[in-house]
Amino acid sequence: MSRRRYVARGVPGGYRIWDNKRQRWWGELYELCPDDLPVELNGAADYARVTALLKRYRALKR
């Protein structure tokens, strides 16, 4: 089994997505753990699905 490229990591104030290949953060800070987002990014990475998930997690911040 290969190593996952994107993982959700807890940081002060919430969660962020860590990109193991580039060794830097991807996206923005989320207050709730974005469980579906790393699964989609590591899987099919369908643009429409990723965009919908980003909008959903951004809306949860407000």
Description:
There is one protein chain. By secondary structure, the chain is an alpha+beta fold. The protein is built from two helices and three strands. It has helices at 36-42, 47-61; strands at residues 6-11, 14-19, 24-30. The protein has a three-stranded antiparallel sheet. Helix 1 runs antiparallel to helix 2 (47-61). The longest helix has 15 residues, at 47-61. It is globular. The N and C termini lie far apart (38 Å). The model has no long low-confidence stretch (mean pLDDT 91).
Structural class call reads: alpha+beta
Radius of gyration: 11 Å
Largest sheet, described in full?
3 strands, antiparallel
The geometry reads as globular
Low-confidence stretches: none
The helical percent reads 25-40%
Report strand %. Answer: 25-35%
- The total count of strands amounts to 3
H and E order: EEEHH
Helix segment tally: 2
Mean pLDDT equals 91
Sheet with most strands: strand arrangement: 1-2-3
Give the terminus-to-terminus CA distance: 38 Å
